[in-house]
Amino acid sequence: MSLDKEMFEKGLAARKATLGAEYVEKTLDGADDFNRPFQEAMTAWCWGFGWGDDTIDAKTRSMMNLSMIAALGKMTEWEIHLRGALTNGVSAEEVRSIIHVIGIYCGVPQSLECFRVARRVLEETGHI
To answer: Fewer CB within 10 Å, N- or C-terminus of the chain?
Structure first.
């Protein structure tokens, strides 16, 4: 197994553990010749190299990601990572606190967007 293949497999496992096997498999199965190279590279780099580093645990990494993705205003990705954060043990109370910090550093409108998405996801998943 080459380093790239090893990194991809490590990333695939981390990605499935956080986002769910069904979601990841659907995304990868839906890849075509145009975007498959990006999906494979992102799985190896982001999930294999980044998430595969055990220095920071998955829960902390999820909390960091919620803050960074909110700062970018990428709400579709924020929702995906919120679901992953819940899988990684982030509580509704912690999500609320993260959104408070988002409001301080990214502005009230962004925190309101996060609260809208969080309420829906937390209700759907039975966390509130």
So the answer is: N
